[in-house]
Amino acid sequence: MTGNRPESKLFENSIPNTAEHNGSKTDKSTSAEVSQVRTPRSATVKPSRMSMAWSEAGWLLFAWLLIAALWELGAYTEVLNPRILPPPSETIPYLLQGPAPAGIGAQRTTFIGAILDTLSRVAIGYLLGIFAAMLVGALIVRYKALRRVCFPIVQTLAPVSPVAWIPFAIALVGIGSPAAIFVVFMAIFGSMTVSAVAAFDSVPEEMLKVGRSLGTSSTHMWTRVIIPAAAPDLMVMARMSFFAAWMAVLAGEMAGINSGLGYLIILGQQMYNMKLVMVGIITIGVLGFAIDRLLLLIQRRLLWWEYRR
Amino acid sequence: MTEMNGKKRRPTQVVFENVSKRFGEKQATKDVSLKVPGGSFTVIIGPSGCGKSTMLGLAAGLDEPSEGYVFVGGREVAGPTENVALLFQHYNLFPWLSACDNVAFAFRNRGMPRKEARRRAMELLANVGLGDYADKVPDELSGGMKQRVALVRAFAMQPGLLLMDEPFAALDHQTRRIMQNYLLMTWQATDATVIMVTHDLDEALYLADRLVLFSGSPGTISEVIDIDIPRPRKLDEDFLASIRQRLEAHLEKEVAYDEFTEAELAKVMGFASAGQA
Ligand SMILES: Nc1ncnc2c1ncn2[C@@H]1O[C@H](COP(=O)(O)OP(=O)(O)OP(=O)(O)O)[C@@H](O)[C@H]1O
Ligand SMILES: [Mg+2]
């Protein structure tokens, strides 16, 4: 890694800013006396974090209730056309009862079936994408030749819209889950690889030297030093990538992969069933939000040391 | 950390023989020869960018010399070994490991089982009054405490050679004084050879058996000064005060010319002399 450092500077600008993790906090505590230490705060932090989560949830609920009420009012006064924008009082019961199966023939799908399709596609494509990006990123950082040859390719692939891969994906593997997974993969692989390279590159040189001088073998350098050191940056990027993956699977399902939540919305449009479109949008929003929260929880667990203070 | 594996070993001598180091176009050091006696405390001072850290990297086996040879303990350096410990200003501790696990890290690398490694690490931390902080992560420790944990780990390896690159530069004055004494106490109980880089003249005079003055780019040794005064030292002592003046004079003309244009330097020096008039 040592020799690659100056070169890696070139690419810094193309990386979303994750500088808050890059050691800026290491300098903070230098002026304290030797005998002095921060009072352990973990005991007081936990309940307050809990109550903060509750108040956050409360405001979220409040905001949406407000929007629902205004919407309802708009529909009632016919400011909003209820045929185009069905009010919550119609949509919510429709959602809870579970929309009837829609579509014809092979494309026929149930609401739950559509959700499962979409979730499994995004999960597989996302995990494969993250894993492949970390692997390729590590190889690029490790081998100078790969940095010269592969990195430019990855960088030019990163900005290609995932939807652009759909014709190719469908021609290769046909409509259905493999094509959707491929699209999700392509949506995150490039940008995640670029981020992974940046994250590995920004591990402080001193930390690597200390690791090596403590007798760490070169495999253990990766597993015990570089990956943990890069983990905060990687995690931030992985969370951002999820949104890209989520968009990509839905866009794919709308643009030719004829199943899943995205396709449900297209069906709603074709049958002029706006309640179905509404249900699709709500489900997409709620699931996306829930998964991001889940990733945040995983982040807290994985990066426990960052949440100790 | 005082038991020395039973058998007495010979203190680790370090020898640089006509060492030059280039990084691409940049010549960091040129034809440096230096003998560091085993068990001594050598301090390197010199202007910014004159290759001090480079020298430590060569002795640690993290870099290879472009020309010349580096010997540690009579053997030519070929890669990092556990006989050589490193201490920097920052990033000595891994933020994702508790103080205890940071110390245990070194033992684990030697194949010691996790439980045993942690037990040994706990013991060492308790020995230096850090027992209560063993389960804290570095972010929860003050700068001084972090360096103390790093020092404990460095000495836990019973290194023959300890290389320190401005280890206390980020600490406040008071803590730095305490750490210097702490270092001396710990070091004197061992046979380790120490090479330390610092920009702090007081620190250099307080600690060094031997001062090595570097001058600017490419780095060469311009003077070696032996300080044969027993510790603990008082810095206002005549001999030390006179050396201090020599050092200041040396560094004055060694301003980092790399970093200032001649015109800019003239402006700054003009301002300074106007102030004295
Ligand atoms: N890995 C590297 N690649 C390229 N140039 C380097 C590298 N390491 C050091 N240099 C250059 O070699 C010269 C000496 O660097 P070195 O870090 O040894 O200086 P130093 O005396 O430790 O300076 P400071 O007091 O600022 O720490 C500098 O000009 C530096 O830019
Ligand atoms: Mg340096």
UniProtKB/TrEMBL annotation, chain A:
Compartments where found: Cell membrane
Q: Where are the transmembrane segments?
A: 57-76, 123-141, 153-173, 179-200, 243-266, 278-298
Q: Which UniProt keywords apply?
A: Cell membrane, Membrane, Transmembrane, Transmembrane helix, Transport
Taxonomically, the superkingdom here is Bacteria
What is the membrane topology here? Answer: Multi-pass membrane protein
- Biased composition annotated in UniProt, kind: Basic and acidic residues: 1-10
Q: Where is this region: Disordered?
A: 1-42
Q: Which Pfam families match?
A: BPD_transp_1 (PF00528)
Compositional bias (Polar residues): 31-42
Every ABC transmembrane type-1 domain range: 115-295
Q: Which family does it belong to?
A: Belongs to the binding-protein-dependent transport system permease family.
Protein name as it appears in the record: ABC transporter permease
Q: What is the protein's species of origin?
A: Thiomicrorhabdus heinhorstiae
